[in-house]
Amino acid sequence: MGRSPCCEKQHTNKGAWTKEEDQRLINYIKTNGEGCWRSLPKAAGLLRCGKSCRLRWINYLRPDLKRGNFTEQEDDLIINLHNLLGNKWSLIAARLPGRTDNEIKNYWNTHIKRKLYNRGVDPQTHRPLNDATVSATIATAVPPQAQIITSHNNIIIKDASIVSNSNKDNYVNTKINGTKLVCEDSNSNSSSGVSSDQEAYQHQQLNLDLSIGLPSSRPQINTHSLKLLQQPQDGDEQQETKVAPSHGVCLCYSLGFLRNKVCCCNRDIGNTVTTAVTDNNMYRFYRPMNI
DNA sequence: AACGAACTCAACCGCGCTCTC
DNA sequence: AGAGAGCGCGGTTGAGTTCGT
């Protein structure tokens, strides 16, 4: 049993949008607002499928879109967000006002990938690409779970505590083919051997202030958390576990989760803090502000 | 000037998720 | 509980544009 088509294909236009079609769509959305894309084309007098209308509006016609080239700051932000989130273009776009996921995806594929290759960085892994010596050194000195950030001619190893002392002595702050390995201790703001321009770079590093647990990290969740994860989403307030008498910040919005939906994390913001709730495979965390 | 190659990006496609009935 | 509708996402396509010879 196949999926029904989103529209009657033989009665819809395809390809580039005309100015008249754009104007019809703009006029309709100005009057009626976004939403109900399936019925929109007919209501707006457009021979397009709803998906096509939605895409045209979101990627091209929306008034809050930023036009023009990406700035260096946006480039860096995209690279850092991609390092953190992978190909989650919608999440990345949520962090760049006026940019769309499609635009960022295209920009990544046409510009940034090449830029990273030119820097000798693998755009998928964000690890050094073509310098066998550097790669081999990192493979030797740095545990695979370490977070690595490439910066100019430096490779910054976040969370230095998981790098053994002997490896720190042997490799950190040494230059290999012009690339310097730098350790950064996650418990302190200072990095060992970090020069002023490196610090300036690190200040630009992304601080999303996040706590995200993926399903693979489930074993790390204690029984208390699991109890929270199993609780019903709505209504059953007695099962809501009181964790700390503090206010909190819902991270769902800032991450771009639950767009267009009311987040259920922040119910009873007073003294009750839901530390984690779950939608199938995604845990959503609610962070007390005093942590 | 002409042609093909390379590049860009708007648009399309198909899948997965959520919601409703 | 399960099927279908609707939406959003990521990957891919292809027409238009730019570049190189």
UniProtKB/TrEMBL annotation:
Pfam families: Myb_DNA-binding. Gene3D superfamilies: Homeodomain-like (1.10.10.60). One of its GO terms (molecular function) is transcription cis-regulatory region binding. The keyword Phosphoprotein does not apply. PROSITE patterns: HTH_MYB, MYB_LIKE. Residues 9-61, 62-112 form the Myb-like domain. CDD domains: SANT (cd00167). The keyword ATP-binding does not apply. PANTHER family: F14D16.11-RELATED (PTHR47994:SF5). This is Uncharacterized protein. It comes from Pisum sativum (Garden pea).
